Amino acid sequence: MSGLKLFRTDTTNSGMTEVMPRLAEVEADVQGLVEAHMEALLGVRFLASEYGTGPVHGGRIDSLGLDENGSPVIVEYKRGTDAGVINQGLFYLSWLMDHRAEFEHLVRDRLGATAASQVLWSGPRLICIAGDFTRYDVHAVREHRRSIDLVRYRLFGSDLLGLETVASVSSGTQVARRARCDATTRSVADVRDTAMVELACAVDEVLLGLGDGVNRVERKTYRAYQRLRNFACLCPPQRTKVLVYLKVDPKDVDLVPGFTRDVSGLGHHGTGDLEVQLRTPRDVERAQDLFRASYAAA
Predict the structure, then answer these.
(1) What is the tens place of the pLDDT at every residue in 196-232?
(2) 27 in the Ramachandran plot: left (φ > 0), alpha (ψ -120 to 50) or beta?
């Protein structure tokens, strides 16, 4: 990782040994490691490896998956720096959009009919994992109207993997934040307290403003806020409160009745085991540290 140094402590001799970063011996090593742990690393359920795109198209997609929000995901890997990885991924993304039924059939076979019926075609994603990227790569993804993540990897020693998001662009980033929030909440404004709608918009502003590379994904029952994976899910405002679900371990939080709740194992919309209940602007302020912790964990 650029600028990151990792050290192993020796408690016996009170010493410190630097663990040197390295690239994989071959591209397949990175691919195999990520595919075996894709949900833990990327928040993506693995579907297929080296997926053939047919004799006419003549290609093989490194990895296919489905993310936490139901968006189709293509993952392409390069051992080092390769100027062609983005264009290659976009080439496959275009094929995917033309073969939706085939992809849904794959999802049905691997994950079941419910998952197949909920595929979110408005937000297909491309994740490029490589040893490094150039400034031209970063500029290129910002010029495309697609959701693209550039992820730099490094191996440390024999058992450590580091992933660093270099750039993350959503297909919806060109829309103004406030207008986007207003458009989403306008349909519920007539049946829900205006104050709660305004509170939801305030939360939206806070979550999007936590740092660079925050993407928002709209689903019918929640809005997901992503870095590489979800870190928060905001539900439509209720009459007296707004619910946010965070990727924070409830065991690490001093739970406050009426404000925070452990929902591990409980069914709810969106992802995350910590429920935060917001009723006033002051509650939003109280939740800031929790928002930041979830963002940092993603």
Answers:
(1) 999 999 999 999 999 877 888 999 899 999 988 999 9
(2) alpha
Query: Tokens for 245?
Result: 């679900």
pLDDT for the residue numbered 176: 42
Contacts of 208 (CB under 8 A, 6+ apart): 177, 214, 216, 225
Helix (H, G, I), strand (E, B) or coil at 36: helix
What is the identity of the amino acid at 169?
V
Q: Give pTM, 2 decimals.
A: 0.84
Strand 15-19 and strand 6-10: the pairing is antiparallel
Contact, 277 vs 258, CB < 8 A?
yes
Over the Cα atoms of the chain, what is R_g?
21
Q: Which alpha helices (H) appear in the chain, and where do they start and end?
A: 27-36, 38-42, 54-57, 85-97, 100-111, 113-117, 135-143, 177-185, 194-208, 281-286, 288-297
- Indicate the DSSP class of residue 256: -
